[in-house]
Amino acid sequence: MEHVKDYLKDINKDFESRARLGIMSVLMVEDGVDFTFLKETLQLTDGNLASHLRALEGADYLRVEKQFVGRKPNTRYIATPEGRDAFQSHLAALERLILGNKPD
């Protein structure tokens, strides 16, 4: 267990919350999704989802595309290459933490 600190240093704080972990997980398997899809899939409120999306956008982990579908506004979210790399590194750090501290 003495190496736990070494493993924890690679954990990305931007992905610590369940909401952000869920957002990035969805964006890793989908090319892009709209706000409603994320809200329903992750079962988050508008405000909660919006605040987490803003944080991830501010970290350059996702980009936002706004357009009109018919006459209705539509906002789509797409993981950036930096976001994909950061999330994969985060998952790898979690895996090292778990596997490196597994009882024999």
TrEMBL record:
It comes from the Bacteria. Residues 20-98 form the Winged helix DNA-binding domain. PANTHER family: BSL7504 PROTEIN. This is Helix-turn-helix domain-containing protein.
